[in-house]
## 1
Amino acid sequence: MNIAIIFAGGRGQRLAPGAIPKQFIDIDGKPLIIRTLEIFQNHNEIDKIYIAILPEYFKHMENLVKSYGISKVKGITNGGETAQESIFNALDSALKENPRNSVVLIHDGVRPILTEEVISRNIESVKKYGSAITCIPAYETILVSKDGKTPDIVPFRREIYKGQAPQSFYLGEIFDAHEKIRKRPQKYEDMIDSCTIFHTLGKKTHMVEGNFGNIKVTTPEDVYILHGLLKMFKDREKAKKEAEND
């Protein structure tokens, strides 16, 4: 069983404070969250989808799933105060209905550009190594600084990668990892993603190659970038079809 966990419980205040949450903004005629869901809906290796959403948008999410025919969605649950709380709620919902050895791909609801190949690589990596952390090489210098003024570490660029999503594991193992983190006094503090949770617990993770353009929409600038990326992909597909017909 291969399951996608889509967390979309944020309010997107960095994008437009007070406006509709970013996962529901219109991107070329479709809500952003739908564009993300369609990637997993259309992948032949994905069996089920579970979504964590803002409680007040629960019904709206149900209506969108029905309207756009996202038939693989088997559960919609309320998000939590943090992204990791939202993920835990969705994992809990999935674990009640599926085997612990199901492969689960954890993905942001606002990352709508992900290739089929990356999804397949994640599933293959979990089955072979027990985990999959999607990443790409960093093409800018990364500085590590505790005070935000002076660099403490300047790693060699050839050793630096940018983590993306999905991040994938066996369902039972990532759920147990969350439960251990939740029992700590600091709970999810500094636990920015599943990779961080695994490393905090001393568990090994395996990297898989991601695709460029797989951005997380966070700021207004990201929306403009996303529009440009979608246009580029449409133009490429059109050129490919024209070449095939010549």
Note: Residues 220-245 form the longest helix (26 residues).
## 2
Amino acid sequence: MENASYKTPFHSSLWKEAAGSFRNVRYLAVCAMFVALHAVLSSVFIPVGENLRIYFTFFLSALGASIYGPFMALAEGFLSDIIGYIIAPSGAFFPGYTLSAMLGSFVYALFFYRQNLSILRIFLCKLLVNIFINVCLGSLWSYLLYGKGYFYYLAKSVVKNLLLLPFETFIMVLVFRTIRPLLVRMKLIPKGTKTKIPII
């Protein structure tokens, strides 16, 4: 672990460190654990309308991405979606949802990997995921699959995702506040990483 935190996710050393995660057996084991948990929890959801569901896997993707970085997060998103579909298929397989899972994990890594977290950072990250991935891309996938019109799905999805945003942000803050000190003790994130989460 070269650095406890970086000022920007685009620092070259951060990406070199993230690429090295594939050579770390502990990170590979942790990633496999998150894939397994994600696959199991992917079948647990609350239906709120046609093709609109509340899932509880987002915090697993966020937590995992904060540990092993953007490259392994992409792999975790891919494997989690594929294995989750095999375990609990829901309709025909569609690769767009696999892409969304990968992009979601990647965005979490950009905001959380080797970064000191704040409530504002967590909120902005979840806002970005909800709007651009869940709403914009999710509505496109629904349109391609079901054909009722892109804006029909967009209107339904944006309401759901904005209503869920405060709840999901609260869950992520709670998870990070609870688990990050443990991750430091387990040496899965650098010792100098701040475990307290300020507002800004």
Note: The chain has one domain: 12-185.
## 3
Amino acid sequence: MAVTTSDLEVVDRIGGAVDAVGAAQRAASLATRSIKREAKVQGLQLAVRCCDLTTLEGSDSPGKIRQLAAKAMRPSPADPAVPHVAALCIYPRWVALASELLRDSGVKVASVAGGFPSGQLPLDLRLREIEGAVADGADEIDIVIGRGAFLAGDDEGLFHEVTASKNAAGPAHLKVILETGELGSFDRVRRAALVAMAAGADTIKTSTGKISPAATLPTALVMAEAIRDFWDQTGRAVGLKVAGGIRSSKDALRYLVIVKETLGDDWLSPDRFRIGASSLLNDLLMQIDKQRTGLYSDPDRYTID
């Protein structure tokens, strides 16, 4: 897809200010929606399918990657009805191994790259890291924007950064992390989302998970509304990923409600919605067991990630 600075015009057309109080109230209202038992089981299964099972630790090792690859393919070995997750998200160092382990499984290999989590490396080094991860077999690339330039008002700088990253990613799906906890306002979150989408992002993502606050329901709502408005203006569908601090099934279902009510059923799939997950997956599995049997499972039944 060819992208030029003229695509920034859509940002000015639909940028606008965000009603912060209204966004918070709307998110709080959606969070109270009750979900019936059958729909809840379906929602929990969907949340599993939309998970990016993630490990981004200095202690990551070949053994841990093998363990998580197995879990990504069969989250609940005793229950084959539980689907595989969407992707395994890792550092570039582990992409070749993960690609070998997950080949033909349906689970994507997602690699953070481009100077994650700070986004402060020189752009040429960031692009080389992206290219290397794709060459090693990454299906998806998660980059983080350089917040400093954007906060200084440099929309074009952010635009060119994302465009260059998209070109470097080639056939890989590009997820652009806004690190919303550092942007300071919903207005900036919306504008950063629009600039990233105009520059070619395939998915926009809330957070690296390395700072607080990370994902929040109002922020996800603001980003979903930006995706909806961008779709209305351009006809191009962009995905949403929420990540950072999402540990309970209840929270996962709340994000699914926001997506459904704001973007519709077409976004309720791993192609257009993801949840960054480490500890969340086990809670989803426990809740699926609870809905089916009426009893909570022993947490020791599941591997600790």
Note: The longest strand covers residues 108-112.
